[in-house]
Inverse folding.
């Protein structure tokens, strides 16, 4: 009898230890992991909706602001016409987005991003002869980014209302990109030359870089000459020592 009670006690203790260990390491019931993962997926999708709506609102505000600058400062009629189209389209897009965001409980920003404000500041101060090309390059990179973000929303968003707004916005952004590329090429620019790393602020006059390339080449020649002179001096020193032995 005593042996039986001891065996039972050991078995119960082992079961209790296993249960306690499971609690310590955070073992969840079989369905709990699925519920948690599902909740995280829904939260990520909701965050995607909010991020897209907020970024697109900033794009709308920025496009309206720099469009007004282009109406005043652009030198070519085609550039001014593009500015008028973008102002009109983004004003409508922003009004529609505000309605959707209100229904979805998303708070929209009231000003463009820091980068977009810096681009507007550059457009205010850039030389008149460079304004159109600079404006176009900002438009190209800005709309490429906006299109990419919108496609991500359509793929990963959760709100049907927000995704519906994104679906309507996409062809508008694509139209603006095509207009900017056409205008930039008409001014003699190369779309493939727009620097992705500068936020769309491409060098609009590659010829101005020529002096810097010349300085760089001269520096390379000087470095090469210095290296060769040092090598000759070291070789001469070695031969002198050998001759004196």
């Amino acid at each position: 009898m005593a042996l039986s009670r001891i065996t039972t006690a050991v078995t119960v203790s082992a079961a209790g230890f296993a249960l306690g260990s499971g609690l310590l390491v955070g073992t969840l019931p079989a369905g709990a992991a699925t519920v948690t993962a599902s909740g995280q997926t829904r939260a990520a999708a909701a965050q995607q909706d909010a991020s897209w709506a907020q970024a697109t609102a900033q794009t709308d505000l920025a496009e309206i602001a720099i469009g007004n600058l282009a109406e005043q400062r652009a030198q070519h009629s085609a550039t001014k016409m593009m500015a008028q189209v973008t102002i009109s389209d983004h004003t409508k897009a922003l009004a529609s987005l505000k309605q959707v965001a209100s229904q979805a409980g998303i708070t929209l920003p009231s000003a463009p991003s820091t980068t977009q404000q810096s681009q507007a500041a550059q457009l205010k101060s850039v030389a008149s002869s460079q304004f159109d090309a600079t404006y176009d390059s900002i438009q190209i990179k800005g709309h490429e980014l906006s299109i990419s973000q919108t496609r991500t929303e359509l793929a990963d968003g959760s709100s049907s209302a927000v995704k519906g707004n994104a679906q309507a916005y996409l062809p508008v952004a694509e139209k603006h990109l095509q207009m900017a590329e056409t205008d930039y090429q008409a001014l003699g620019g190369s779309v493939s030359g727009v620097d992705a790393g500068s936020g769309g602020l491409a060098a609009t006059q590659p010829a101005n870089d020529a002096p810097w390339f010349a300085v760089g080449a001269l520096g390379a020649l000087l470095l090469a000459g210095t290296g060769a002179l040092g090598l000759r001096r070291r070789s001469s020193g070695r031969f002198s020592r050998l001759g004196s032995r």
Remarks:
- The two ends are 103 Å apart (CA to CA).
